[in-house]
Amino acid sequence: MNILYPKNTKEFDDIIKKDKLVLVDFWATWCSPCRMLAPVIEKIAEQYEGKITVLKVDVDDQQELAIRYGIQSIPTVTLFKDGNVAAKEIGVKPLNSFTSMIEANIA
Amino acid sequence: MSDIIDVAIIGAGPAGLSAAVNTLARGKTLRLFSSSENYLAKAERIDNHLGFYNISGKELMNRFVEHVNTMNVHIENEKVVNILPFYDHFMVNINGEIVEAKKVILAMGMSKVKEIPGESKLLGNGVSYCATCDGMLYRNKTAVVWDQSKDATREANFLNEIGVKVIFVSKNEQPKELNPNIEFISGTIDEVNGNTKVESVIIGDKIIKTDAVFMLREIVAPTALIDGLELDGGFIAVNSSMETNIEGVYAAGDCTGKPLQISKAVSEGLIAAQDAAKKIDKIKLK
């Protein structure tokens, strides 16, 4: 399983520019719904290994990114395609809502 | 996370308590959660529940609770925030604690949740049902807390502690326990405004600018609790085994529709519990 934790905005930007499809889980340690979603995100990373890149961004550590993408509620899971936001799911959602979001954007 | 339990029961009225008794009777483990007062306890006199002629709602409710307590089941007074299906089981968020359960029985009674204009459009974009979940995102910002449950004061104080500028809106008197740093407005919220995120709320003839609105009702609407739950005429849709459109999630009692009666709730709780237990046994045999 391969989940990346970009340490700063630059690292984040480099990844979303370089990789075609990037799924980003905006979360925080204190957020219980985020903890609930964690195994779902891990499953996605496993299922789509080599096809998409999965990132986790702690909104407390990386407020710049949270502000840039207008994160008002967490968990928010955003799919980036070619560096742009292609789809977004706010809140605790089942696995299939993320797989359908990915399937709709995977070429 | 603790060990996985067999059945999580949400609601401790006649349906939830009956589900608890029957889950236990089938040798299954359970936890029982309730966050609101039961309507039954407010009924003056009940004549149509077999075996109990001329009994007050309060007394009958006490007997029900005593019954489950005798069986060593205790009601946990916590609010369920959300439920997430994950493969063959569920993760249930009980006010921050994640409980894993094989089956879920919803028995939270009739949901009197009336959404206000702007609420569902801005849910997740400033509208929140859970202060401990989203509060930290509004540090150094303004948040309106709408008092609609007994926990609202506690949650408003929590937001104030973590550095949110809190405005407390209530139709009741200002609670004594409310932190004095919190601004109090008497009234109810009529509307939430904002384009892509919350910008203001309307309270009577006042417009209050805010970044967030915490709607702290006693119960979360079933459809906000679990994604994709089907309703039928405002009530949770179920089949003859009391199972909803989501496999493994059952509903029983007033939340499934009329008649809103004790005997119906008790029997639905039994049907749901027995079916849940039966299906858990089938999985074990595989």
Automatic annotation (TrEMBL), chain A:
Residues 1-107 form the Thioredoxin domain. Gene3D superfamilies: Glutaredoxin. The keyword Transcription does not apply. The keyword Transport applies. Keywords: Disulfide bond, Electron transport, Redox-active center, Transport. Pfam families: Thioredoxin. PANTHER family: GEO12009P1. Belongs to the thioredoxin family. NCBIfam families: thioredoxin. This is Thioredoxin.
TrEMBL record, chain B:
Residues 6-269 form the FAD/NAD(P)-binding domain. One of its GO terms (molecular function) is thioredoxin-disulfide reductase (NADPH) activity. The keyword Lipid biosynthesis does not apply. InterPro entries: FAD/NAD-bd_sf, FAD/NAD-binding_dom, Ferredoxin-NADP_redctase_2. It is an enzyme of class 1 (oxidoreductase). Keywords: Flavoprotein, Oxidoreductase. Its EC number is 1.8.1.9. SUPFAM superfamilies: FAD/NAD(P)-binding domain. Gene3D superfamilies: FAD/NAD(P)-binding domain (3.50.50.60). It comes from the Bacteria. This is Thioredoxin reductase (NADPH). It comes from Sedimentibacter acidaminivorans.
